Amino acid sequence: MLIRINGKQEDIQVATLGDLLQSKNIEPQMVSVELNNTMIDRTNLTTTLLKEGDSIELLFFMGGGSGHDLRQ
Amino acid sequence: MAFTEEQLVRYSRHIILSEVGGKGQKKIGQARVLVIGAGGLGSPIALYLAAAGIGTMGLIDADMVDLTNLQRQIIHHTADVGRPKVLSATEKITDLNPDVEVISYQKNLDAENALEVFNHFDYVIDGTDNFPAKFLINDAAFFANKPLIHGGILRFDGQIFTILPGESACYRCIFPKLPPQGVVPSCQEAGVLGALAGLIGTLQATEALKLILGIGTPLTNRILTYSALQTQFREITIKKNPDCPLCGAHPSITTLEMETQEVCDFDPLETAQKDS
């Protein structure tokens, strides 16, 4: 099925958003997922079904800047 | 406040812009902006705002300049290694533009001091590198009702968006809670292209100037992402999340607290490398 991921059309055979993340090797805790302009609660990823033409945005956490240790 | 002859010349390229003019330049001169973090993002933010003639700039950073910083933190020079970042940055700002009053805080922002510090300023710009700070800044901006310009960088990617508390989507509307510790690698762990910090920080400074001047369309309810490797900007529409734990209909966060990160159970670096 054709879906749009971060603006790029992809032909991918997955059932749910959880499957999609798994197929791309993305740990759910490091990303926020928007499906057709609606944020999907992380607890619903594995139950949210995908369909042809869906548009998905994967928004990653980004720190950066000052340059000292993240784990302070 | 009337401009001196020197100021008329110094700011002439601003004043000549019909959207700025003498009136707008005065607004810049009266603005009070807090820059959090005098590092990769904070360097271009502070330098461009200083050049623009920001009236009062707050700078908060507890760190000393380290040799590894100089690859991207352009406000600090080789001779500054080992010196407090806020001191090094204040000198450069004052050298560049003595009109700017700098209020520096050589400390980390925390739940105890955040609102006190925020209350001295009209706008807040996030140039921090860690998630407990980014979430604290988002929450403090909400409670203090200060416009916030968020920025983040990692490896070859950056993101930026503006938050008008209560009006537009906040950081927690997108990321409700902190990532567990170690899930998202830091620049220290994963690296960052130095010039990328300049680009994202300069975008943040530009958005701050637009807010101050009241011109154009603010970067609210949309995230601008930049991929240096693809040379591609993307805009992602976001909206206020009714379930946001901070600004949603039934908030669970009602006081300012510095959250700590939980420990994660997989190797983040391995995952990041697989993804890249």
Give a brief outline of the structure:
The complex is a heterodimer of chains A (72) and B (276). With 72 residues, chain A is mainly β.
In words, what does this structure look like?
The complex is a heterodimer of chains A (72) and B (276). Chain A has 72 residues and is mainly beta. Chain A has a single domain (2-60), classed as Ubiquitin-like (UB roll) (Roll). Chain A is 10% helix and 31% strand. Chain A contains 1 helix and 5 strands. Chain A has one helix at 17-23; strands spanning 2-5, 8-11, 31-35, 38-40, 55-60. Chain A has a 5-stranded mixed beta sheet with strand order 2-1-5-3-4, with no helix packed on it. In chain A, strand 1 and strand 2 form a beta hairpin. Residues 65-72 of chain A have low confidence and may be disordered. Chain B is α/β, with parallel strands linked by helices and 276 residues long. Chain B has one domain (31-275): NAD(P)-binding Rossmann-like Domain (Rossmann fold). Helix content of chain B is 36%, strand content 16%. Chain B is built from 11 helices and 8 strands. Chain B is globular. Classes of the chains: A mainly beta (72), B alpha/beta (276). The A-B interface holds A 6-7, 24-27, 29-30, 32, 34, 37, 39, 41-42, 57, 59-72 and B 37-42, 61, 63, 66, 68-69, 72-73, 85, 126-131, 134, 151-154, 157-159, 173-176, 179-189, 192, 197, 200, 223, 234, 236-239, 241, 243, 261, 264, 266, 268, 271, 274-275.
Which whole number gives the mean pLDDT of chain A?
86
CATH level-4 homologous superfamily of chain A: Beta-grasp domain
Biggest sheet details of chain B: 8 strands, mixed
Gross CATH architecture of chain B: 3-Layer(aba) Sandwich
Using only CA atoms, what is the Rg of chain B? Answer: 18 Å
Per DSSP, what share of the residues of chain B sits in E-state strands of 2 or more residues? 15-25%
Major beta sheet, strand line-up of chain B: 3-2-1-4-5-6-7-8
CATH fold-level assignment of chain A? Ubiquitin-like (UB roll)
